[in-house]
Fold each of these.
Amino acid sequence: MQKPLSAEAIARVKATIPALAVHGPTITKVMYERMFRDEHIKILFNQANQGEGGKQVHALAGAILAYAQNIDNLGVLTPVVERIAQKHIGYDILPEHYPFVAKALLGAIGEVLGEAATEDILNAWGEAYWYLADILIAREKAIRDEINQLDGGWTGWRKFVVAKKVRESSIITSFILKPADGRAVMRHKPGQYLTFRFTAAEGLQMKRNYSISSAANGEYYRISVKREANGQGGSRYLHDVVNVGSELDATPPTGDFFLPDAPERPVVLLSGGVGLTPMVSMAETIVARHPKLETYFVHGTMNSQTHAMADHIKTLAEAHGRTSIATFYSEPGRGDAPGKTHDADGFITIDWLQRNTPLDRADLYLCGPTPFLRAFVNGLGRKGVPSERIHYEFFGPADDLQTPDEQG
């Protein structure tokens, strides 16, 4: 059994809350700089998240502050711990990496706070860090053990061959991935993602998460990727460099966003743009395993040119018999018309959801770009939908989903 945090450590960590509120982003910026001096630690991280105006720096600062604020009531952080543990499995972060993070964090606190970072304060934060680290290490071991017990499960990186490349729309392409060793692959939970590593032409080492867009089958995975014109190379690499026969390294399916084995309520699968990918996995699974489940597939995209997998979803809905489809086009093209290519012009709204879906009793699964998620995750909550019925996937820093007034 894990030894509890000492009362002295709790008190001293809580005493640093005002300083963390002011200096948190500076501490985490210095912390990353210190960690990334070790190349073998630097390559563990998705470097795309380190840019973009320091989003990850601010996200980590927020997480450290939240830890300090709740250090005597850590139960409220359980969902965050699970999300971190799942990410660590994807990035293949191991117990031996944790000391490097500890050294960087404590060094950054000392550097930024100066004389205020007394030996007692640093010792308290060292104790607090390792208390949380031990929780994460234990949870990650449990996840890896569970994966290894599954048929086709693996740990670390495994090579996959692109068996097929399918253009789904003007901006989205699917990749059918089969294991290079010819053995089975573990059956993922519908909604989970794979993490890939590859080297772009300019030599940039990249790690990217992509949702699996197929139901579990034990033989292959499908990912469906949008070509991001202004992206940092991941999607462009897949679209422009990777072809049939190419090999990609991937860790096992992970993620805490998935359709449960036995859904208890109607489900609304709500997506924007390429956010439909985990929803397709869920829809295929519903058709195969949940013939009586009341399902609503609600999707928004620009127009018929960007609309991916439209015919596939219609076929699934017809086969299921209890799936309703509604599609919104925000920028209809020539020849696009409601009732012909889609159901409505404009954007999905919460008012529309209230009128056309069982919002008062359904589980909602959301995936889409940041503005889409920010609007619905926060808006649904304001409409009284309990947080336990709002499930979403988001690959960036979680605080990006807060509205400005919530960020303070």
Amino acid sequence: MSAEIWAAIFAGIALFGSFGAWRTAFHAKQAAAALTAIEARRWHAEMTPTFNVTCAREWLGDTLGERAFLRIRFTGPPGLDELTIKVAVRDDWPDRKSVLTGGPTQEQIKAQVWGPCGFVHGVDGGSEDGRNAAPFSLLLGDGRQLALDRTVSPHWAIPADWHQRYDRAPLRLALHCTHGDDKPWTVHYEVPIDETKPV
């Protein structure tokens, strides 16, 4: 065989070897990325924030009447030193639809808090619909108290039936937590309401 043919063969072998090395490096990089993603998910799950959450209705006197207080204390894990938290009241079940002819509209259903309490509008940054409080920061071990009002029955419901259904129901919450550049967490709680004075 001529030198040109041998040169072409060696070039082909070298090219094949280079492709093999590239392919091995490519698969190694994919495996490393997959392992990194698994480790990130594991870390995120292990670092899910924990809280001590309680709620109690309290009688504030004949002038102020009754109000509920939600108390949230940031308890762990130790690797999270500070969180920014936004608390939202959740409905008793999601995606409720209007089923009655001439009943409430979908907008009215969405605007109603379907539970025992909502945040006080204007207090602690409570939204107008009572569903959210303004975000706040907590250091590990610290707590925060938020004011709640008894949910007002909607105009299409019989008030006595509404309050019989919801006054003793647990308060359903979603705590949306952020910490630096980490992926956010959402932690759900169902909190019984302690009655210091009967409603």
Amino acid sequence: MRRTPSRRLFTAALLVASVLAPMTAIPATSVHAAAVNPYSVERHDKDDCPQDGLGPKLTTRLDKAIADVREEAHIPGVIVGLWMPGKGCYVRATGVADTATGRPMTTDPFMRIGSETKTFTVTALLKLVDDGRIRLDDPISKYVHGVPGGKRITLRQLAEMRSGLFPYSADPDFVHDLLSDPSRSFTPREVLAYGFKHKNTFKPGKQFQYSNSNLVLLGLVIEKVSGHRLVDFIDREVLHPAHLRHTLFPEGAEFPEPHPRGYTNQTLSGEVEDSTDWNPSWGWAAGAMISNLHDLRRWAKIVATGTLLSPQTQKERLKTLPTGFPGTSYGLGILNSDGWIGHNGSIPGYESVTVYLPSKKATLVILINTDITHEGQEPSSLLGRAITEIVTPDNVYDRPVPPR
């Protein structure tokens, strides 16, 4: 259960990391013990999804696949929502929301969604494009001073993860400073400084490198151009028009009830800790937001189909480029994994996946209360793969690379 924090800390937060990121210390075994027990399934009538919504045979296969992954990867609690028009739906919560009390996971809690925040930030940016207030090929230096090589890095390249800027969350000093005091509040400029002290890793546009620095800069662009705080602009221009009433951008460690406890081993000691009340301000435009299953179901289709944007701007968003990882490409704050379009997220204690498959108009949302990897793989990706191998075998999220 030990891991050197700087190897991965806060840099995964994305499917491609595995295809291609008062505190109470708890013993590692307590997560494991709770993760395999109980196997009970919880659902609510308000989910509007029958118990055997995809038919008894398929439902049983999914129940078993999810239970197997949860046991193998030692995941305390899992929420899965799968909606397939013409075939049915599957909404389940299994395992526990709190390993200390055994409180069961339910389908309606608020969850930290990590890098799924990027889909909201980039949507806000693209609304400014639609309004004619910015252009994607503007250099970042036009809006933010002090960016290394900023005159040659465009807003498009930032959103595509092709800027070459060093990821601040991979800086050892940042890792140490955050883990020494997880309740600390960071400003956007403070976190960027950790990355800016490093040389750029490549020339803009030359390759893909996932970097939270890119999205923090885009958040600053939104604030400068709109004249509003990012949290307020996203609330007014994205959340309200999308009718997302249970999605929010916290400014500190606030976390609405109900919510599960979150467990991570991204700690200075490498031991498992409860990270529920850690302050996500360090992630800001790249990873601080909170949502729930039902809002994310709605958001998946909005992002993939461009409901809030002009057709031309959405077309630009969906121009995905290779990431270097087979089967996965990345566009403007959005990924395409074997046809599934959306994003995932990872923040200490929580992981999520929200994706939409246009060919079948299918939506998949996965929410879990741990980010502890299993044999080097994100647990949320293991779940996504197991589910889609059953329901959409021609389109497998995080499809494994075939052996050579």
